[in-house]
Amino acid sequence: MPSEVAPPSIGGEALRNRWFILAVLFVVRLTMAFQFQSVAAVAPLLGSEFGVSLADIGILIGLYFTPGLALALPGGAIGRKFGDKTTVLGALILMLIGTLAMALSDSWTGQIAGRLVGGAGGVLLNVQMTKMVADWFAGREIATAMAIFVNSWPAGIALSLLTLPLIGTAYGVGTVYLAVAALIGFGLVLLAVTYQPPANSVTPATTSARLDRNAAIAVIAAGLIWGLYNVGFAIIFSFGPSMLVERGWSIAAAGSIISIVLWVTVLSVPLGGFLADRSGRPELILAGGCIAFAMLLMTLPRSSAVLLNIIALGLVCGLPAGPSLSLPARVLQPATRAIGMGVFYTVYYATMMLGPAVGGACAKWAGSAAAAFDFGAAMLVVCPVILWVFNRIPAALPKVA
User: Fold this and answer.
1) SS3 state of residue 376
2) How many other C-beta atoms lie within 10 A of the C-beta of residue 165?
3) Prediction pTM value
């Protein structure tokens, strides 16, 4: 297994600074958020151009996560074989190919094919870049670094909601895809030119450790919590613009106000982690945050105070993120961490593949995007129930020193 060798420095000591590297990784992961949101941000235009329903669009949104079922588990092994940087560059190339295929295709089948190819690249990028952040920050502000890195997703979604609807309204859906392709190309060049592994980077040895039954069940439960929470989160920006358009908003205005949720979430995600650590009650933050999130999700389509509800959603919806992501660490040992996180992400991607599709089907059945919000709220209410089950699995019980 080849280990990565740092290339010659091209920009002085700045390129060896971990915070500069984190900024690079943040920007590169931002492209994944733009690609994911490129469908939902212009859903009304997409429906008109291809003659499809909200249910079809929901399926197209969810297809982005379908490759995760096959690639999440072997993603770490792929990175070990080809190296972190090479793997992420390959992932970006797949994302670029997928987006260009959607831009150049005038058939719904072409949209599906491009979405799957782009999603395959997104899966590899997501799994591998998380490991790259850990390489740079292990033992040094790792929680802060991970919080910043994770926030590239809501920040990217928010930026896409501000920009992509305007581009789509003015120039069409194809131009939206081309704009996303240009951003992915920029991320590819940025990573190729600036990224290098830390000086103490060591390629880990492959381990054959296996999860025992209790640990596997606990990791699956944790993956379900993370997946269902993200289904509720995705409902906001996947069907929020369509819901507001149904109420008479313009596409651009609907995308702009929904983006406020994501901007506020950039603050509430690290706040949730901070409150969980300081209070020593992470599960209370998780359960309480999910219930409050569900209530606001049901309220938004029925309230005239849209802006107030949007701000409240942003303040609440990010709180469970940190506590949810901390659950696998309770059951995984260093020797089982690679396979355990593979299982965790496989469950997550399966849930995220089905969630938007079911939400879209609910909207079609009810004749309104508001039904998708009710579905998302129901998924959030299930999270505390699974957490109760998780706490009764022997592998998740507190260890006695």
Assistant:
1) helix
2) 27
3) 0.74
Residue type, 387: L
**Tell me, what's the pLDDT at 7?**
45
CA distance 361 to 62: 12
Alpha-carbon distance values, 104 to 177, 226, 228 (Å)? 9, 35, 34
Output the CA angle 29-32-35, nearest 5 degrees: 155
Burial track 130-160 (b if 16+ CB lie within 10 A, e otherwise): bbbbebbbeeeeeeebbbbbbbbbbbbbbbb
| pLDDT for the residue 191 | 96
Neighbours of 163 (CB within 10 A): 20
Give exposure, 181-193, as e/b (b: 16+ Cβ within 10 Å). Answer: bebbbebbebbee
Cβ-proximal residues to 315 (8 Å cutoff; 6+ apart), any chain? 264, 268
The domain locations on the chain are 13-196, 209-394
Tokens of 209: 């450790």
DSSP state of 64: T
Specify the fold of 13-196.
Growth Hormone; Chain: A; (1.20.1250)
Q: Where do we find the tokens 């995600």? A: 269
Mean pLDDT for each 10-residue chunk of the chain (401 residues)?
Answer: 44 66 94 92 86 86 86 77 88 97 93 95 86 72 71 86 89 94 97 86 53 87 93 87 86 84 86 79 91 94 89 92 79 71 84 85 87 94 95 69 37
Fold (topology level) of 209-394: Growth Hormone; Chain: A; (1.20.1250)
